[in-house]
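pasting input
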Amino acid sequence: MLIDIFKCKEMAEMACREDLNLSLIGKLKYKVHISMCERCKNYKLQMDGLRSRIKESIKNKMDSASEEDIKNLKDKIIREFKS
Amino acid sequence: MSAHKDTHFRTPEFVEKLKINDPESIKAVVEAYTGHIFKAGLGMGMGEQEAQEICQNTWITFFEIIKRFEGRSHVRTFIFGIFYKKCSEFKRSNAKFERHDPIDEIMEKRFLDDGHWKENPGDPHKYVEKVEVLEIVEECLEHLPLQQRAAFTLKIIEENETGEVCEILGVTHTNLRQLLFRGKNRLKTCVDGALKC
């Protein structure tokens, strides 16, 4: 091997990061590995799909709060702390 | 928390007003973050009633300890730090970062000694198709440790800066990476198990 590419184990960890701040060499090593390794490519795509689903699921829960409930809660808290 | 219109909350003048219980400042800060806290409670898997209680308890503690706030972080970070502790108390879960997690061993077993995969994770298109229609993700999320779920909510949903998430959860950048890695792989393992059934 001419260049020292990342191992699959390291790639799996990087696939789960939210901020992948790699150096130029790091980015190159990452791209080389993904282009060569079917298993890492599959894992990364699975994790990306799962991430979207997690986001959708938690967001739906958060958005289930009604504006009226939030307003009532704010009014209650403001009343309590102003008095 | 994505909107950063609340920059004046960071000023020492504003913090001082909060410390002397200035009604207008109280109103401004409560107006700005109550919705966020309530929604974050729901995002952490709580019911409406529980999320409202956590929200009120967060504000009670905030106004009790605001006099000790030194202003090194943003008021928002301070509030969400309290919120997260309240959630931990409520769920009776350990708020501290765990050095060991069973998922670490599960992941370890998926690799050969040379660091390469033992088995192919499988067809990603089929996987994503199945995950899209299954409610299993919601069920698996319910079993996620609080700190991992909080990391998801703060980082993936609220899209907070890494530094702010670390401050709220009281963890290092490396710990946060690990929380996300563990959380996502716990979910994947849980989903994989359900897909096999």
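fyi Chain B touches chain A through 56 residues (CB under 8 Å).
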